[in-house]
Amino acid sequence: MSEKHLKKGDALPPYNGKLRLFAMRFCPYAERSILVLNAKKLQYDLVHIDLDNKPEWIFSFNPKGTVPILEYEEGKAIFDSSIINAYLDEKYPDPPLQSSDPLQRAQDKIVVELLSSAHSAYYTAAFNAQALTSESLETYHRGLEVLQKEVEARGTTFLGGDKPGLVDYTVWPFLERFLSLPHLGKPEFAISEDKYGALLKYMESMKNDPPIKAYTLAPETHAKYTESRVKGTPDNNMLDTSDVCCFRPRKKKE
């Protein structure tokens, strides 16, 4: 599957009858929906969009021009990861990714909401370091501490139980990116073993989950992309190899 990001002037690829997700390779919100599609083992096409130079046709699917966007029938789409993922879990209920208990579903949403403050601190540390304050660091670690307490309180391998659920696939994309901060010269944002042992154990289990394993990127890769964006030249296609041609080595002359 090509990792190339389509931009203004590029044609809309033909629709072939599968679900189609418009995403951006380094977007955590798009990753949330990709993980759910993977967990459901659904057949889908993935189209990456250059969000800095968007193709004109993307606005016909989402007037805001943001991703993710799920095209569920030709020319018909829904957008926003929370809306997409709720739709996918109801439309394709096997396996279910949410509890049948309304209270548990509400508690899962609270976990996601409490971690969101750490998202803001991450974005500041990664993309606007000059605006960092001690409060940003405190907010970040407070979010991680809350998540670790929830992991410990639930006493299961994943927040969703013995297998990852929607809550796990919602928090993971940011945890994945948090690991890149020490590689960006921010050691104070490290998720250290001495402070976050239970959380790191949970994260290790998540890394080995097949839907995540198929899409997750190394911290160094996230750091490299972040650096390119901070410099003003985001390398959206850094993972794309679709134009690379491999040549057979010449035979030695005898």
Account of the protein in words:
The structure is a single chain. The chain is of the alpha/beta class and 254 residues long. The protein has 8 helices and 5 strands; from the N terminus they run E-E-H-E-E-E-H-H-H-H-H-H-H. It has helices at residues 28-39, 81-91, 102-127, 134-154, 166-178, 197-207, 210-213, 219-230; strands at residues 5-6, 19-23, 44-49, 69-73, 76-79. Strands 1-3-2-4-5 form a 5-stranded mixed beta sheet. Helix 1 (28-39) links the parallel strand 2 (19-23) and strand 3. Helix 1 (28-39) packs across helix 5 and helix 3 packs parallel to helix 5. The longest helix is centred in the middle third of the chain and has 26 residues, at 102-127. The relative contact order is 0.13. The model is unreliable at 244-254 (pLDDT under 50).
Which secondary-structure class do the elements indicate? alpha/beta
- Gyration radius over CA: 20 Å
Percent helix, as a range, is: 40-55%
Q: Helix-strand pattern, N to C? A: EEHEEEHHHHHHH
Instruction: Note the total helix count.
Output: 8
Q: What is the overall pLDDT average? A: 94
Strand order of the largest sheet: 1-3-2-4-5
Number of strands: 5
* Poorly predicted regions: 244-254
Shape field: globular
Question: Major β-sheet, in short?
Answer: 5 strands, mixed
* Cα-to-Cα separation, first versus last residue: 40 Å
The fraction of residues in strands falls at 5-15%
